[in-house]
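Encode chain A's predicted structure.
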Amino acid sequence: MRGVGRASAAITIVNALPTGVGCALGIGLYANAEVTLREGTTRAPNELRIPAECRTPLVEAALRAALEHYGLPHGIEAELSLRSEIPPSRGLKSSSAVTSAVAEAVARAAGRSPEPLETALLSAEVSKAVGVSATGALDDALAGLSGGFVVTDNRHGTVLRTGSADPDWGVALLVPRGTHRPSPEWRKEFEAHAEEGQGAVEAALSRDWWGAMTQNTELVERTMHYEYSGVREDLRRHGALGSGVSGLGPALAAVATHRQIPDLMNVLPDALGEKRTVPLTAAESGGVRRSP
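Encoded structure for chain A:
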């Protein structure tokens, strides 16, 4: 039995650390997984065959969790192939994308076709269990599976709001070389600013995506000690609809019409890191169903 799965990166509109509610927007960088399942010769625990170059505690946990979630019996041999074009540990949701892609591949191999929310919830559980995410990052995982804007309450695993991205929009990315400590280590510092973070949440719930992005990044930049305010002002003057730190950074994302993207790429400082132009991912037909 063979299955393939794919999930995209995402950029942050609202970080969930202050309040538990997050908002993300899917972008066109992808993680791809392929899983082959074979019956083993014994009833021993499942054997995982994961190439050394992509075998991490997160990947192994995602594969084991998906095998259990879809009720596959002991004695299964699971062989995984994984490829990701998402820069890791930069705030572009690589962990959510990888776990989602692995879970989807296992589901397909088992003959299942789960809704994006089911896969995203499984991804969130794994991310919290392994310690790579304090909230589980349900918004990130779901945006990477369904596309468009997604607002979720990560404390309760519910979808609060969704929205489509205009096909005329694109993203200019700045991806510095540095990384950050895992989000659980920052949780208390962000929760101390929950009242300020609530303003960004309310803007996102009103579909004021760019107002939410601005309020969120001001909080994140101050807490993480990034100095992007001058760059963001230049981006705004050159046509950015919204810009801000993605996740805990250090990646900086700016959304604009395709016509304005070249101007934004010229504004982003070469000295700070790699620059990329990426598309947004459109929400699938019908979108994600909001939780009751």
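Residues 169-279 form a domain with the Alpha-Beta Plaits fold (CATH 3.30.70.890).
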